[in-house]
Each structure stands twice: as structure tokens, then as C-alpha cells.
TrEMBL record:
GO molecular function: methyltransferase activity
Species classification: Bacteria, Pseudomonadati, Pseudomonadota, Alphaproteobacteria, Hyphomicrobiales
TM helices/strands, residue ranges: none
InterPro entries the record matches: S-AdoMet-dep_MeTrfase_Alr7345, SAM-dependent_MTases_sf
GO biological process, one term: methylation
Name of one Pfam family that matches: Ubie_methyltran
E.C. numbers: 2.1.1.-
Origin species: Bradyrhizobium brasilense
Signal peptide: 1-21
UniProt KW keywords: Methyltransferase, Signal, Transferase
Protein name (record): Class I SAM-dependent methyltransferase
């Protein structure tokens, strides 16, 4: 009996030594996804890979700080390009709410989102069809992040109460939650005046509107800046890369 006890004790000691000798995985490393690998996933579509060339999704996910387990609202999800990337990143335990208005879905997106939603990568996505100035279901609270990519300028010429929309986004975030917003740059002084014709918005105008809701600017990304863009050409007809700004806001703790 004593011999068995001694043998068990020796085995336990050897296991403990092996565990101590093994390289330890830091919590911060485990929480930081390999964004490049997510973008390079073999089951992503060729069409999305074409969009990657101008959207730089690995840099965007890194800048935003998207992590597994997060709950995120993707405003103006459209056909779901960004929604799917977010869903892949927050998986397996996170969730993404993909918002769009019924009017935009019917006129411009048709069944594109529904087709994408059938993919396994979208299993943690909830499609939210609501108006932009009332975008969040009442049961959705304490979001970790809201993303709003390249559509805020369109909101400015639609019948949307932007101040109400921004306040509701603010309210839906948990304290310390983030709003990451990107759009096409307009010339200084243009405001929202070229939103419908050029599909651009002046950065300072967008900042003023977002900050009026209580958001605090915490970071600005330069990875989509293109100084060669004269900012006076419609986005969809520009012969050069479009200058775009990326902003990260936080709801104060």
C-alpha cells in the first residue's frame, strides 16, 4: 500500500513539474485574435476578398479591438460584408446584431443578406430590421461595441432623426463600450451637402454630431487615408483610392 502511495506521489510531482516547464499562455494573448487569419479563412467568398483590397479588414478589426465573446451591433449592415467578419471574430460565444431598415433592404440589398446568412460563419448573427433612428430592439442592452461603416453619410439625406439615432446608440452601449465609425471624406466646409451627390461627409461634421450624443473620441485610424484623393469626385467613380477616416469613440465609464 505504501509503495502505491509513493508511486502516485511521484507521478503527481512529475506532472506538476511538466506543467511548470510548459510555456504559459498569457490571458491577453488568448484574447487577441489572429485577425489576418480570420480574413484569410478559406470559406470566405471571392467577392468579399475583392472588397478586402480597399477596406483593409485586418487593420479595421485590429483598430476596433474586436474580441471573442463580444456582443456587437453592426449598423447599416447592408449585404453583410462587415457583419460576417465581426461574427467570425466574436465566435464562438459572441453575438452580432446586423441592423438595416426595411426600405434599404428592399431597394438596394434585396436577398443578398439572406443569402449570406445561410453560411455557417453567420450562425451567431441576429438580423435586426428597424429604422435607423430607432435601430436597437428594447431587449438589447450593454453592447460591447457598435460599428457603423461607410453609411453615415447616407443617413444624412434620408428621413432620419440623427440626433435620436446617436443617443440610442449611446444608451445601448455598456459603460466603456465603443463606437467605431468610418466614412468617405469630403472637403473642408462641405458638411453634409455632398452626401447624396458624392457619397461623402466632412469628418468634422460627423464628429460634432456623434460627440453631441455624449461619445468621447479615443482613437483615429489613418490606414484608409489617401492624400491623392481630391475629394470632389463621386466615391463610385473615383479613379484614385478614396480618402476615408476611421474613428473610435467610447461611452464614458
Amino acid at each position: 500500500m505504501n509503495r502505491l502511495i509513493l508511486r502516485a506521489t511521484a507521478c503527481a510531482a512529475l506532472m506538476s513539474a511538466a506543467l511548470l516547464a510548459a510555456p504559459q499562455v498569457r490571458a491577453e494573448d488568448a484574447a487577441n485574435p489572429d485577425y489576418a487569419a480570420i480574413v484569410a479563412a478559406p470559406d470566405r467568398s471571392d467577392a468579399d476578398r475583392q472588397v478586402d483590397q480597399r477596406r483593409q479588414p485586418a487593420e479595421m478589426l485590429t483598430f476596433a479591438g474586436v474580441k471573442p465573446g463580444m456582443t456587437i451591433l453592426d449598423m447599416a449592415a447592408s449585404a453583410g460584408y462587415s457583419t460576417e467578419l465581426l461574427a467570425r471574430t466574436v465566435a464562438p460565444s459572441g453575438k452580432v446584431y446586423a441592423q438595416d431598415s426595411a426600405t434599404v433592404l428592399e431597394r438596394f440589398v434585396k436577398d443578398k443578406f439572406d443569402t449570406r446568412a445561410k453560411a455557417p460563419a453567420m450562425k451567431n448573427v441576429v438580423h435586426v430590421v428597424r429604422d435607423y433612428d430607432d435601430p436597437i430592439p428594447p431587449e438589447v442592452k450593454d453592447l460591447d461595441m457598435i460599428t457603423f461603416f461607410f453609411f453615415y453619410h447616407d443617413i444624412t439625406y434620408l428621413p432620419v432623426d440623427r440626433a435620436a439615432m446617436n443617443k440610442k446608440m449611446f444608451a445601448a452601449l455598456k459603460p466603456g463600450g465603443l463606437l467605431v465609425i468610418a466614412d468617405h471624406s469630403a472637403k473642408t466646409g462641405a458638411g453634409t451637402g455632398v452626401a447624396k451627390t458624392l457619397h461623402r461627409i466632412e469628418e468634422s461634421t460627423l464628429k460634432q454630431e456623434i460627440e453631441a450624443a455624449g461619445f468621447k473620441l479615443v482613437a483615429e485610424g489613418d490606414f484608409l487615408h489617401h492624400a491623392e484623393d481630391p475629394k470632389d469626385i463621386p466615391v463610385f467613380k473615383a479613379p484614385v483610392p478614396i480618402d476615408e477616416f476611421v474613428l473610435k469613440y467610447q461611452k464614458p465609464q
